[in-house]
């Protein structure tokens, strides 16, 4: 059904435009559900509408699922995956901006859905965000150099406040297929988590 290897950039853009707003609406639904304080009637009505939407979507199943795909031009499409999948509302809304051949940054807002300690981001999601940006920088956006996490080490300096976060990553050195890379997350008060990773470029 989705044969990205056969698609033009325009066709991919049109699919993105179809599904990205659905993903964002589901994220907003989760946020609304986490903030609601209503009576049985309101909650029952919302549940019925959500169940109806799920039934509508289930009536049109995809024949394949793909975590990530490539277009003929070599553009990578994060489709269903948890790190930054366009169609996955559990993925934080990450947009990785490559600031050079060996570095990148993310500016993202993480709200109630990502809470661990009260008012703060769950440590596992901090790890996911750092793993994602380190992996993307290490992979350098190419199928030829896709790198997997070999080892990642995190240091939680202090809790990360929910809200706007800034994330950076930079390659420190490479040894053959091994890429040594560091990164950090900062909230409005400064750095909260640092990461050191060893990513390994997959054998082709
Ligand atoms: C369609 C696609 C579009 C793509 C478009 C691009 C965008 C793409 C963005 C991706 C962004 C992803 C961001 C999330 C990244 C994950 O979450 S990946 C998932 C978590 N990681 C895994 O599942 C990896 C599981 N492990 C493995 O598959 C294999 O063990 C590995 C890591 C590939 C290494 O296997 P291998 O290639 O056989 O490695 P091997 O030859 O044994 O060892 C090579 C060297 O690495 C060292 N090494 C091996 N394993 C380790 C380790 N775990 N720790 C430390 N050192 C190690 C060895 O000691 C050796 O060192 P030297 O002797 O050369 O000094």
TrEMBL record:
One GO CC annotation: membrane
Keyword Nucleotide-binding applies: no
Keywords linked to the UniProt accession: Apoptosis, Cell membrane, Cell projection, Cytoplasm, Fatty acid metabolism, Hydrolase, Lipid metabolism, Membrane, Transit peptide
EC number(s) from the headed UniProt entry: 3.1.2.2
Family matches, as InterPro entries: HotDog_dom_sf, THEM4/THEM5_acyl-CoA_thioest, Thioestr_dom
Catalyzed reactions per annotation: dodecanoyl-CoA + H2O = dodecanoate + CoA + H(+); octanoyl-CoA + H2O = octanoate + CoA + H(+); (9Z)-octadecenoyl-CoA + H2O = (9Z)-octadecenoate + CoA + H(+); hexadecanoyl-CoA + H2O = hexadecanoate + CoA + H(+)
Membrane topology note: Peripheral membrane protein
GO biological process: fatty acid metabolic process
Domain Thioesterase: 119-193
Single Gene Ontology MF annotation: hydrolase activity
Any one Pfam family match given in the protein's UniProt record, by short name: 4HBT
Xref: CDD domains: PaaI_thioesterase
Assigned protein family: Belongs to the THEM4/THEM5 thioesterase family.
Protein name: Acyl-coenzyme A thioesterase THEM4
Organism listed in the record: Nocardioides humilatus
